[in-house]
Amino acid sequence: MSVDRQAVLRGAGAVILVPTYNEAGNVERMITAIHQNVPEAHVLIIDDNSPDGTGRIADKVAAQDSRVHVAHRPGKQGLGVAYRYGFRWALDHGYERMVQMDCDFSHSPADLPRMIELLESHSVVVGSRRVEGGGTENWPWYRSAISSAGSLYARTVLHSKVRDLTSGFKGYRASALERLDLDNLRVDGFGFQIEVTTHLLAMGVDIHEMPIRFVDREVGVSKMSSKIFVEAMLKVWSIRSSVASVRR
Ligand SMILES: Nc1nc2c(ncn2[C@@H]2O[C@H](COP(=O)(O)OP(=O)(O)OP(=O)(O)O)[C@@H](O)[C@H]2O)c(=O)[nH]1
Ligand SMILES: [Mg+2]
Fold this sequence. Notes:
The chain has about 250 residues and is of the alpha/beta class. Helix content is about 40%, strand content about 15%. The protein contains nine helices and nine strands. The protein has a seven-stranded mixed sheet with strand order 3-2-1-4-7-5-8, sandwiched between helices. Strands 6-9 form a two-stranded parallel ribbon. Helix 6 packs parallel to helix 9 (about 225-245) and helix 8 runs parallel beside helix 9. The longest helix is centred in the C-terminal third of the chain and has 18 residues, at about 225-245. The radius of gyration is 17 Å and the shape is globular. About 40% of the residues are buried. The structure holds guanosine-5'-triphosphate and magnesium ion. Magnesium ion binds near residues 102, 106 and 217.
């Protein structure tokens, strides 16, 4: 293995984008865990002025560690807005690889080297609960059932070959992310994940699904609600029409 390749696997040239809202109990541990796995990666925390002080904790870490950056947003504007900001920031700062992940340890930082390695041979890597070897842990049966049904429904409406359309753990080469028309992404909440993956698929980008075990959050309060779920399922139809405007 060449020295350069080893540096890539340690996260050189990569930025890990982590949106946060009220993650005071997780944010510092998360940054530490990321660096235990990919010590050369940079981290961008995108905080929506969390009332619990997540942004201040992140600032404290960033003041002592040049690999850590914090974007302070004025208030809770949803995941889509946070990620669009993060993608733009990462492209403007010249990173070669971007990974997006949640701050609540549902996505394991131990999976980062594997994801970054797969980005050597694929333009986009989706951490997937719905391929062999992947799955969810500690989810009550009804949440698994709702999630499976929602996923099957979205996949069917969108004729998607990616099985885990709602996954929020994804890696991109800059060249793939650059092709996304960020202003054409309209959907928020976790419908945003469906929209990004569907647009990339429509552009013919090479997407690989990597199996992951998704663990339910242990610290902090869930923001998932039946309203958010139903909203995302309805948005699938507007995503279907917006795909027509995406160039191949
Ligand atoms: N910046 C920003 N981050 C958000 C917002 N909503 C959620 N997040 C963060 O996005 C990530 C995913 O949100 P979660 O609340 O874990 O969503 P979920 O996994 O569907 O649901 P639970 O884990 O059950 O809460 C976490 O890191 C959150 O802190 C938001 O409006 N703005
Ligand atoms: Mg979560």
